[in-house]
Amino acid sequence: MIKPPVVLLKGKHSFLVEKFEGQLHTHHGIINLEELRNKNYGDEIETHLGVRYKILPFKPADFFKHFKRSATPIMPKDIGAIIAYTGLSPDSLILDAGTGTGMLAAYLAYFNKYGEVVTVEKRPEFAKIARENFKLAKLKNVHQIIGDVRFVAEGFKKEFDLIVLDMKDDVEFIPTAKKLLRISGYLAVYNPYIEPTRRVYETMLKEGFREVESFEIIRIDLEHKRIGTRPFTRVWHTGFIVIGRKV
Ligand SMILES: C[S@@+](CC[C@H](N)C(=O)[O-])C[C@H]1O[C@@H](n2cnc3c(N)ncnc32)[C@H](O)[C@@H]1O
Question: pLDDT band at 52, cuts 50/70/90?
Fold first, then answer.
C-alpha cells in the first residue's frame, strides 16, 4: 500500500499528490484521488477520460520540479557540483545561508543522512515555504533559523564542515565563514553575477583559503528528433560557484 506524497506521471507531465482525497484536474481529465488508497507504486490511475497516469513515490529527483518556490533556487546541476567538489560526507555539519526555497538545503540534508544542515533565512515568509518543502521531503536533519546570518552566526558554537552562501551579503560574510569552518572545511559561494563573483574569489584568497576555484557549470541538453540529434539549452546561465578550503 502506498502513502502520500506520490507523483503522478504521464509523459512530460507530472503532478505531486499530497493527500489521497478530493479530485485532481489535469489537461487529460479529472482523477479521483481516493482511488490511490488501493494502488501500489508502478500501478496506473485513470482520468475520467481514460488517460492513464503512472504512480511513483516522491523522490529527491522530484524536489526541483515539485517544491513550492519563493526565492530563485539553485539548480540540481550546480547543487551536484557543490556536493562533489566539496567532497560532502554524510555525517557533516553544514551551514546554508540563505535558505530561500530550501532547494539546496534539502539536497544537502538528503545526502548528509547522519549529519545536520543549519539553514538561515532572513525573510520569515520564505522560511515558512522552505519548512513546508522540508516536511514534504520528510527531512528531519534540517535546523531552520530565521534571521540575518551575519548576526545569527555570532551565536554558533560548533565548527562546520561545509558552509554554502547563496545570498546578497556573501563577500562581507567570508571572514566569519572562515572562523566558523573546521580545518579542511569548505566554503562554497554561489552568485548569479560576475562582478561579485570576482570579489568573492579575491576575498577568499585574502582570507587565506586554499585551492580556491571559480567556475560555471553549463548543462547542454540533447534533442533527439527523427531527423537527428542536436544540442540545445533551456537555461544557459544560472550562477558562478567559488569554492575554497580552509587549511
Ligand atoms: C537566492 S535565495 C537562496 C536560494 C536557495 N539557495 C535555494 O536553493 O533554494 C537567497 C536568499 O537569501 C536570503 N538572504 C539574503 N541575505 C541574507 C542574510 N544576510 N541572512 C539570511 N538570509 C539572507 C534572501 O532572503 C533569499 O531568500
Answer: very high
What is the Å distance from ligand 1's center to 100 Cα? Answer: 5
Angstrom distance (rounded) from CA 4 to CA 244: 40
Q: Identify the residue whose C-alpha is closest to ligand 1 atom 20.
A: 148
Q: Which domain holds residue 28?
A: 6-58
Q: Grid coordinates representing 97?
A: 545561508
Cα-to-centroid distance, 90 and ligand 1 (Å) = 24
With the most atoms of ligand 1 within 8 angstroms of its CB, the residue from 101, 119, 121 to mutate is: 121
Ligand 1 atom with the smallest distance to the CA of 104 is 8
pLDDT of residue 109: 98
Q: Which three cell numbers stand for residue 16?
A: 505531486
83 and 137 assigned to the same domain: yes
What pLDDT score was predicted for residue 90? 97
Residue 92 lies in a domain: yes
Q: Give yes or no: residues 15 and 130 share one domain.
A: no
pTM: 0.95
Phi-psi category of residue 42: left, alpha or beta, with phi > 0 → left and psi -120 to 50 → alpha: left
Q: Which residues line ligand 1 (CB under 6 A)?
A: 71-74, 97-98, 100-104, 120-123, 126, 148-150, 166-169
- β-pair type (240-245, 210-216): antiparallel
Residue 11, Cβ neighbours under 10 Å: how many? 8
Q: Is the pLDDT of residue 233 over 90?
A: no
